[in-house]
Write the structure tokens for this entry.
Amino acid sequence: MTEKTRPSAGETAPAGEISPEKRLEIYRLQVLLRQAEQRAYDLFLQNKIKGTSHLSLGQEAVAAGAAAAMRPGDLSFCTYRGHAHTLARGVPVEKVLGELMGRDNGLMRGKGGSMHLTSVEHGVMGSYAIVGAHLPIACGAAWRAQYKGDSDVSVCFFGDGATNIGAFHEALNFAACRKLPVVFVCENNLYMEYTPIAEVTAVKHPGADRAGAYGLERIVIDGNDADIVYLTMSKAFARARAGEGPSLIECLTYRHSGHSRADPAKYRPPGELDKWKERDPVSIYRKRLEAQGVPGATLNAIDAEVRRLVDDATQACEAAPSTSEDILFTDVYADGGCSWRN
Amino acid sequence: MAQLTYREAVARGIAQEMARDENVVLLGEDVAKAGGVFKATVGLFEQFGPKRVLDTPISEQAILGAAMGAAMTGLKPIAEIMFADFLGVCYDYIANEFPKTRYMTNGQVSCPLVVRCGNGGGARFGAQHSQSVENWCMQFPGLKVVSPSSPVDVIGLLAAAVRDPDPVVFLEHKSLYAVKGEVPDGEILDTLGTAKILRPGGDATILALGMMVPRSLQAAEALQERHGISCEVIDVRSLVPLDTQCILGSVARTGRVFTVEENPRQLGWGSELVSIIADEAFYDLDGPAVRITTPNIPLPAADALEDLAIPSVDRIVEMIRRSLTA
């Protein structure tokens, strides 16, 4: 294992207290993301979900820690690997699985699919499948909040691969110049699709090592530790709400599965996955809570409650009808239809 | 009533909308303090201040992306992409983001924004600052495309674009910025998706856009005077939505149709219009539909060459005369 791909404990260690209730919320969120995405994977294997899918298994601490630090009104901008971030904002599992399965009960009734999960009522302002496109878009939403004097923060999640595309740099510069209330969260899972990010990037830390170019603090954290994510995000939110501008947070993490459903991830060196699984975010969080005196029965009850929820959602989706054909031509234009001529 | 240049009309149209609605904001390169490289936004920074009129870096993706994020959450941004050619460096937003968001989100998200660009040739700027890019934009379901040819239409269509709940690409013609026209006092509001018959005629229909509109009007004048041919000149104005009824109605009256397009021939906007006419008005035609276009070449810089490439009044006259008298 090279130095660059070794599981890292991060470099930035934020201080702060987390209440027992908040810790249980963060635990439950991680369990929910884990179980919902494992279910999505199982449904793929059963051919009940078609198309593609990009899972965040192994990266739950980022989505859970970040969402736990957000307030209603804060806006999430996600990538095609966006199931976890969508669920973490409170979007029902049934809506997400239904969308993946192309059912009428889906979040967008099947018109978007896995890579475009959006739920405005939950502050999930979209999942974007063109790498980097949503960083400027998140800036625009932050610009609106600044213009209106609102305290909402835009949060933009993206992978390590996005740091090498032009929109990343345009967005960072734009946000820093205008002191926009936006938090950029780079989930560095070490692989840009099938290629190790270190092989194609001029700096060691694809996000954090670019921060200085835009006058921002260099922040590299252990993205498998939800407490560290939560505390770091909380600090970044406070900074954004105080009008002090954007933050760029690089979270070191690892995806347990391949890039997408088509990828068995054979390019990874032997032992690397096992090494990272020793630092599985859900397991280490559970051990931490137990060490802090939370009874195992309490945690088991959370696990069981989430299991029931995911099972119920799955059953509801399997029973739901396919998306109705009458929406094929709707919502291209604001008049509700698709006519472009008289 | 006042005489305004086309570029003054742009600023007046934006000012009209910014004064009406505090959610209307303007951003782009050099649009604020400098008043725009084409001087089409002069005075807006002074009138509305730095909060609503933003100078941006040369970051076209940031400009369009920020406009989209702001539009999705409640503002009505007008984003300037200085030369329409530069849409090439932020095409993702034109192609993938603006037009598809409403559909993909099952109607949850809308993008009510306007992208203004300096479009077209005639200024000797060469192949990367002179293109007519209507067909770059009109192919995406969900996006609207407008191109005015006169100062009064600039104001009315710009106001309509700003108030429209869908994303609109607003193509201003660079070589028309200095052209003057009568503009009434008070608020001006036009309607997207409406073509205008600028000159009635019975022998042939000419469909034109942007700088090709004044050239087509001159050609129609010459055809009448020199050859006794009466042409109806239609300013298409809005490619999406398209006023098909106006166009088909004219074709039914005249029996012949010519498109005058500044874009290179291959897949120019006229090809779609001619296709519609072939489908729906074939039996009204007394002869082939003819497209008068720039040839399939990048635009050259030298004046002699550029003038040869873009349809001129003489070329329009000659092609219509030959076609009708053949």
